[in-house]
């Protein structure tokens, strides 16, 4: 291939010949002071809140505070290049990001600029970063399952398409892992995924991108990064920018999954901006509208009505707590906004229960309606059973003699805990999940030693996939039927029980 | 052209607010006596003299110089050159210890006076000096467009190469050669980049 200089020269010549001189009319202001990612500007008389402005060197800013004598601008770029006295030009548009197929598989900054060295994002379409979420008439109830591939989540806190399920826990409890597993599990499901890293170490984001790439998940995933070294304004707008990219797919009838990792860092960035802008501080020095900052973001996760194509955005916001303190300001805010939470606990995590989900206080407020019917029948009582097992376990530690019924309840509990453990990056198909959870809750594992449960699961699934594919297919076809796996006399249930029994005979 | 002279609007917002208050008071007094334009002009010339004499400005601004001494100084300097109203205004300002805001006051007075009279002032930047007739014609065109009388000050800046840039209030009408060249450059590089990418994609797919 040759790109001749002459050809390029002729293109440039054409551009020059066709250039029509137009007088550039713009509204301007002058930078009074600049620092810490914000600038105060005099002038810009008619600028609107949220409007884009341009500094010299093409740096973009956002009108944030409109005051009597000046305008507070947040700078989305390198503020060190801006000087006092520089001219600021208003662009007359709201902040937008490129959207469409061109962003899929890319690693971008919150303005849609590439960070992965794969060249510019070739997209002709853009969407405004901030929009008002769809209203009640444009929505429908959440009814379609969004499989995360994690047994504990899909069985006990099922998530539906269009739901916001909070992942909350201390540092190092596997919060990101839950989100990443959910993304990995969307392979071949047609769901577009967005991983939005806010205030994360660039090294950990690089690790996530590497894992996603190795598991083929980058084919349908967009990663938006504003790392710990990015200025606060970029960290603040990153979640909105990512949501705008997802909305393009949603309004075209597709399904999206967004992981916001994490919103506590975004709140901190917003607090920084607000304090620099001299907005009055409130509780924990957050500004009064930090609730609105999160609620207007998460309200954009929607299941659209059929008339609008039925697309959806499911979101997994992540919140990091300090020492398990869920009653701090930001955690309580986001808990009240979302449709449920997955609570991850450090002591469970370190005792080897991974995902370290606390079944007692993790809930899903709308997902039950969206759960696969067969799974609902199998796992309906699981969450409460597990919670009561934890209580019983604490009681049993007192060393009292236990009656046989209590002992068997404990034994079953230990096996269920083992069964719900799942290694990272190994999401399970929902049919597999239904079978193993059925075996656990119905006492078919009672003869298997506790420390052998994980081996049992692995070998049983191998057995089903290689030797009893017909049973698997039958359950897969029948899983959305309300009667499946409900009672032992159901034909599908009988097939599953027979298969488990057959395997148990050969298991040792 | 030095950098500092390029930044005529860098100022302190506190001073600007104070300037507004004092200027409003002076104009109020002027409206009563019917000599607003004259007052504004006198205040501007006083502010200009003070800004040109840094030592005098320092003495007037310093809190260590007694108010009486400041008033004496002002009377000696401007006593027979400005009207009584302006002199009184300066004395009041001195008593209140606000002589450091003199520049802001004079600018605010000029602006408020223009606003009251339905006028607006602006700048006309050209690469080479232009005649009064050109300035007048540009001012008329602009005033027709915005419906206000426009008064333009001339600025010469060789960096714009040719054409002219008019700034009225916060609006800039940019017809300079340099901005047109920048536009051509941006469009040509964008188009050339697209062509190169297309070629690369053809190469990659075929």
Question: Would you write up a description of this structure?
Answer:
The complex is a heterodimer of chains A (508) and B (206). Chain A is built from 16 helices and 16 strands. Chain A is elongated and about 85 Å long. Helix content of chain A is 38%, strand content 18%. Chain A folds into three domains: 28-94, Elongation Factor Tu (Ef-tu), domain 3 (Beta Barrel), CATH 2.40.30; 98-370, P-loop containing nucleotide triphosphate hydrolases (Rossmann fold), CATH 3.40.50; 378-506, Up-down Bundle (Lysin), CATH 1.20.150. The mean pLDDT of chain A is 93. With 508 residues, chain A is of the alpha/beta class. By secondary structure, chain B is an alpha+beta fold. Chain B has eight helices and four strands; from the N terminus they run H-H-H-H-H-H-E-H-E-E-E-H. Chain B has a four-stranded mixed sheet, sandwiched between helices. Chain B is elongated. Classes of the chains: A alpha/beta (508), B alpha+beta (206).
Please outline what is shown here.
The complex is a heterodimer of chains A (508) and B (206). With 508 residues, chain A is an alpha/beta fold. Chain A contains 16 helices and 16 strands.
């Amino acid at each position: 291939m040759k790109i001749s200089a002459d050809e390029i020269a002729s293109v440039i010549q054409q551009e020059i010949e066709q250039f029509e001189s137009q007088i550039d009319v713009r509204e301007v202001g002058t930078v009074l002071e600049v620092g810490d990612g914000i600038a105060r500007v005099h002038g810009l008389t008619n600028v609107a809140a949220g409007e884009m402005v341009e500094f010299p060197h093409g740096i973009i800013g956002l009108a944030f505070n409109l005051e009597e004598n000046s305008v507070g601008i947040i700078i989305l770029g390198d503020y060190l290049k801006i000087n006092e006295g520089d001219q600021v030009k208003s662009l007359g548009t709201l902040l937008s990001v490129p959207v469409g197929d061109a962003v899929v598989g890319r690693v971008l900054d919150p303005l849609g600029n590439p960070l992965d060295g794969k060249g510019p994002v070739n997209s002709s379409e853009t969407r405004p970063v901030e929009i008002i979420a769809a209203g009640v008439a444009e929505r429908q109830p959440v009814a379609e399952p969004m499989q995360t591939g994690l047994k504990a989540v899909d069985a006990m806190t099922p998530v539906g398409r269009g739901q916001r399920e909070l992942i909350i826990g201390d540092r190092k409890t596997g919060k990101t892992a839950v989100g990443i597993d959910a993304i990995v599990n969307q392979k071949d499901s047609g769901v577009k995924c967005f991983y939005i890293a806010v205030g994360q170490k660039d090294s950990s984001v690089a690790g996530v991108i590497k894992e996603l790439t190795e598991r083929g998940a980058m084919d349908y995933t967009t990663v938006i990064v504003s790392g710990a070294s990015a200025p606060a304004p970029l960290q603040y707008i990153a979640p909105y920018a990512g949501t705008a990219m997802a909305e393009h797919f949603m309004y075209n009838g597709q399904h999206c999954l967004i992981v916001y990792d994490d919103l506590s860092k975004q709140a901190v960035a917003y607090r920084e901006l607000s304090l620099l802008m001299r907005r009055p501080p409130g509780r924990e020095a957050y500004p009064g509208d930090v609730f609105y900052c999160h609620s207007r973001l998460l309200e954009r996760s929607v299941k659209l009505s059929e008339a609008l194509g039925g697309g959806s955005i499911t979101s997994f916001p992540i919140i990091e707590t300090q020492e398990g303190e869920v009653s701090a300001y930001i955690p309580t805010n986001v808990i009240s906004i979302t449709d449920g939470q997955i609570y991850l606990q450090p002591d469970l995590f370190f005792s080897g229960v991974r995902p370290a989900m606390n079944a007692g206080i993790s809930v899903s407020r709308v997902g039950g309606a969206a759960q696969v019917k067969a799974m609902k029948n199998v796992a309906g009582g699981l969450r409460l059973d597990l919670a009561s097992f934890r209580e019983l376990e604490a009681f049993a530690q007192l060393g009292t003699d236990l009656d046989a019924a209590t002992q068997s309840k404990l034994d079953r509990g230990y096996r269920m805990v083992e069964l719900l453990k799942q290694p990272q990056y190994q999401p399970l198909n929902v049919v597999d999940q239904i079978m193993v959870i059925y075996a656990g809750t119905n006492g078919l594992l009672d003869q298997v030693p506790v420390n052998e449960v994980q081996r049992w699961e692995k070998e049983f699934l191998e057995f089903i996939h290689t030797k009893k594919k017909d049973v698997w297919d039958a359950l897969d076809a029948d899983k959305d039927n309300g009667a499946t796996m409900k009672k032992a006399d159901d034909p599908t249930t009988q097939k599953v029980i027979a298969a488990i029994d057959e395997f148990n005979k050969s298991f040792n | 052209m030095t950098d500092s002279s390029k930044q005529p609007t860098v100022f302190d917002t506190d001073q600007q607010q104070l300037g507004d208050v004092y200027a409003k008071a002076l104009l109020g007094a002027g409206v009563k006596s019917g000599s607003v334009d004259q007052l504004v002009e006198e205040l501007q010339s006083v502010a200009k003299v003070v800004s040109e004499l840094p030592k005098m400005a320092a003495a007037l601004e310093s809190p260590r110089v007694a108010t009486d001494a400041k008033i004496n100084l002002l009377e000696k300097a401007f006593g027979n050159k400005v009207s009584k109203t302006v002199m009184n205004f300066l004395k009041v300002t001195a008593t209140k210890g606000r002589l450091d805001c003199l520049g802001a006051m004079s600018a605010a007075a000029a602006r408020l006076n223009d606003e009251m009279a339905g006028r607006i002032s602006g700048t006309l930047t050209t690469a080479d000096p232009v005649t009064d007739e050109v300035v007048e014609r540009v001012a008329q065109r602009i005033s027709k467009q915005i419906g206000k009388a426009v008064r333009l000050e001339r600025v010469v800046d060789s960096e714009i190469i040719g054409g002219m840039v008019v700034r009225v209030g916060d609006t800039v009408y940019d017809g300079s050669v340099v901005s047109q060249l920048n536009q051509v450059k941006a469009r040509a590089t964008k188009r050339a980049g697209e062509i190169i990418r297309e070629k690369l994609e053809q190469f990659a797919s075929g």
